[in-house]
Specification:
The complex is a heterodimer.
Chain A (H helix, E strand, L loop, with lengths): L1 H27 L4 H6 L7 H11 L5 H13 L5 E2 L4 E2 H36 L4 H14 L3 H15 L14 H34 L3 H8 L4 H13 L1 H25 L4 H11 L2 H29 L1 H7 L1
Antiparallel strand pairs in A: 1-2
Chain B lengths: L1 H19 L1 H4 L29 H37 L1 H16 L2 H11 L4 H10 L3 H14 L3 H8 L4 H37 L10 H10 L8 H26 L9
Helix pairs in contact in B: 1-3, 1-11, 3-4, 3-6, 3-7, 3-9, 3-11, 4-7, 7-9, 8-9, 9-10, 9-11, 10-11
Classes of the chains: A mainly alpha, B mainly alpha.
Chain lengths: 316, 267
């Protein structure tokens, strides 16, 4: 239990650091904090500006400002985007569904493919097939996700005309959505799978040398039974933490893939916010992503705790 | 994977030479202009871009920024990771708890979104990019260094150094450090690979320094200035291929240092 408690403290501190960062950044960065809080190049009247200044209360003590900032966060108030004239929370929650949808598919698909490919590559690492698989996984994981997306878009959508090259759907039917989302999801899945393949391969290479694998062989089990019945279970443990840590990474990748495929998810929202210097939106997005990543990691810790009896007993 | 390793070193040497002496390789000067949007031809092997710069010349000159950001950010990350890992592993106890707790906190904060926010606030620039990528990329190095330091600090030669009354700094610096360099070297290469990918991603969003082009920035311009819509693959493919080849080369060298079967991961 004490181990879980220590983890909990770390997550709480992470959360605090993230919140403190979003609180401090607009106030500490060069320029007028009010402009930093509402974003550059917005046209607001002097009266609105004064109203905002009074509302934020930059003249009050910092602790008081922080307390009121926390209070508004607790009410899911992430600020107001003066570029798009809407509360940041509404903008983000309206868009996040799509991004989460294909991040989710990519993470699950990537884990499945990665575990399988990595297991096969790690079981007989000296074979030609295993070498090729490792090299492909290495190359994909070394490519920036948006470039992979550009490649696929230019090849399958422009050149071969197999897929539409922008948007989420023409009409809101499942078929149309699937047709539009196939390429972006494929790119992201490949990317996630490549990372998992490399980790799984390393893990299997280590696990298959252990004594229980030798024992399983000695009692006459076939290669397949040793690999899938014994080695696979232990070797896939690192993948659980990896999936959680990767969530932030794949989610960031999803943002870029969306930009390339012009999908109306969080990525395009953030891209426009960067171009227009819409600071409240950028900060809100960062805060939301960070909170999701922290939750994912907590979930992974709990799952890890449940599936690995060694950790469970160590804790007691 | 010695074959891959040899290829990796060969490729990296080529890229480094290109980055050091671009003027010897590029067919034109970086500021020479001609007709925009030209197709590949004998004069312009990869055509020209929207303002008439020879794309091959641009590609050659961009190597410098991409490699500089990658290696400099990794050097900074390694320096921080080494100090924190050494201190945590050598001092143990409360210092270890605090330092590793901090490491976990840094590990969990999503990097790319944070860097996007930071870079949007500050004026984009190469120095800033190096600083931010370096400051956010040290946690995996700190972890391996700590684990290795915990082993090495129990060995005989460290014990005798302590008995002779050497200061902790001296012991960490000249007794322990040389014995953990072999785990730091691969991590340094992997940090370089990761920093190069991050740089390419941020430049794609337009958060780099537009006066100092990198490969990522070239793709960004090709994407936003019509190279993609006009299907000018000779504009946006070469910089992407260069990034991938260079990162694969660096990562392959890192993995071969690390040895087969060791933990393999790029963050």
């Amino acid at each position: 239990m004490s181990c879980l408690l220590a983890k909990g403290i770390r997550y709480a501190v992470s959360l605090l650091v993230v919140v403190a960062l979003t609180f401090t950044l607009p106030r500490a960065m060069p320029g007028d904090p009010v402009m930093n809080l509402i974003g550059d190049d917005v046209s607001v009247s002097q009266a609105t500006l004064n109203a905002i200044r009074a509302e934020i209360g930059l003249d009050r003590p910092v602790t008081e400002q922080f307390a009121s900032y926390l209070w508004s966060l607790l009410h899911l108030d992430l600020g107001y985007s003066y570029h798009l004239n809407a509360p940041v929370a509404d903008l983000l929650f309206a868009r996040i569904g799509w991004t989460l949808l294909f991040t989710g598919i990519a993470i699950l698909g990537g884990a499945a493919i990665g575990i399988l490919a990595g297991t096969l590559a790690g079981w007989r690492p000296e074979t030609k097939k295993s070498h090729t698989m490792t090299l492909v996984a290495l190359a994909v994981s070394c490519t920036p996700p948006y470039f992979l997306a550009l490649l696929f878009l230019s090849m399958f959508a422009f050149r071969l005309g197999l897929f539409p090259f922008k948007g989420l759907y023409d009409e809101a039917t499942l078929g149309s959505i699937a047709h539009h989302l196939f390429l972006p999801v494929l790119v992201l899945t490949l990317f996630a799978a490549a990372r998992n393949t490399l980790i799984m391969r390393g893990s299997v290479v280590q696990e298959k040398e252990s004594l229980y694998a030798l024992y399983a062989r000695a009692k006459g089990l076939s290669d397949r039974a040793v690999l899938f019945g014994h080695v696979l279970k232990n070797a896939s443990l690192p993948i659980i933490t990896q999936i959680a840590l990767d969530f932030g990474f794949i989610f960031s990748g999803a943002l870029f893939v969306e930009i390339v495929f012009s999908l109306n998810g969080m990525g395009t929202l953030i891209y426009d916010a960067v171009l227009g210097r819409d600071y409240p939106l950028l900060q809100g997005a960062f805060l939301l992503i960070a909170v999701m990543v922290i939750c994912m990691n907590m979930a992974a810790d709990i799952v890890y705790h449940l599936v690995d009896p060694r950790i469970r007993r160590q804790g007691n | 994977m010695t074959g891959l390793n040899r290829w990796g070193i060969g490729l990296l040497v080529v890229f480094v030479i290109v980055a050091i002496v671009p003027q010897a390789i590029a067919p034109y000067g970086p500021k020479e202009r001609s007709m925009p949007y030209q197709l590949p031809s004998a004069e312009h092997l990869l055509g020209t871009d929207d303002i008439g710069t020879d794309i091959l010349t641009e590609l050659v000159y961009s190597a410098r920024i991409s490699l500089l950001v990658g290696f400099a950010a990794a050097a900074l990350a390694t320096a921080i990771g080494l100090s924190i890992g050494l201190a945590a592993g050598y001092c143990r106890g409360a210092a270890d708890e605090v330092l590793m707790g901090a490491t976990d906190v840094v590990l969990i904060i999503p990097k790319i979104p944070l860097i996007i926010v930071l870079a949007a606030f500050l004026r984009p620039g190469v120095g800033l990019m190096i600083l931010v990528l370096g400051l956010l990329g040290w946690e995996s190095i700190a972890r391996v260094v700590r684990a290795k330091t915990l082993q090495v600090r129990e060995t005989g030669f460290v014990m005798s150094a302590r008995c002779m009354g050497f200061s902790p700094f001296r012991i960490m610096g000249s007794e322990i450090l040389p014995n953990i360099m072999h785990v730091v070297a691969p991590k340094f290469m992997l940090a370089t690979a990761a920093a190069m990918i991050s740089e390419a991603s941020l430049s794609f969003l337009g958060l780099g320094d537009p006066t100092m082009k990198s490969w990522g920035m070239m793709i960004s311009f090709a994407f936003s200035e019509g190279g993609f819509i006009r299907d000018m693959w000779w504009w946006y493919l070469p910089p992407g291929i260069c990034i991938t080849l260079c990162v694969v080369a660096i990562a392959a060298i890192g993995f071969s240092f690390e040895g087969d079967g060791a933990e393999v991961r790029i963050e």
